[in-house]
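Issue 218. Parser rejects a valid record. Input:
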Amino acid sequence: MTRSSDIFARSGRRIAAALAGSAVLLLGSWYLLSGGEAPEPAAPAAGPEPAVSLGVQAADADPARRQFDDFDPRPDHVAAAPPRIEPVPEDKLTSDRKAWLADPGPQIEVDTSAQVRLEAARAAATSELQKALDDRRGSLLRACGGKDASNIFVQATFGPDGKLLGRQFADHGNATDVLECLQSQPFAMSIPPPGVELSVRGVLAP
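Output the parser choked on:
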């Protein structure tokens, strides 16, 4: 029993010595191959920026990053009011400016009431035209064979006295002979005098 223990002990010591020797050889080989301590990597040499290397002159300031000296990021910050415009002293006015100030000429005043009256007259004329077209729709389309036609637009022009000066039929897709027939049909009507010449549109719908 003692002899077997001695054999195992000697075998263990031999294995430990072999492992230690192998470790020393590996460390020595690594040290020799690496040439000692590894040097620190050198910092890359400073070179021109890509834009400069391509021939583009670098700008002094980046326009994409605007900076304002008087910028205040506070949410309650109120921008400074623009400077007050001071009147030009009288002794520095030109002769033309002095003459205009002395006599600026007639003041042009916009007559909004006239525009209101015109719009009212246009709306009334449109209503009267559409009413006349609705009343005569059947007879006009029967006379011209356009019962199956699509919508036909009618533009009528009235004089200041309200009398019909002319009308024109137009559409998209109907036969030309139907439009020519409608244009040749007698069509008389009048509206309350609008005071000005105006044109309105209506629809002759089958």
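Fixed in the parser; the record now loads. The mean pLDDT is 76.
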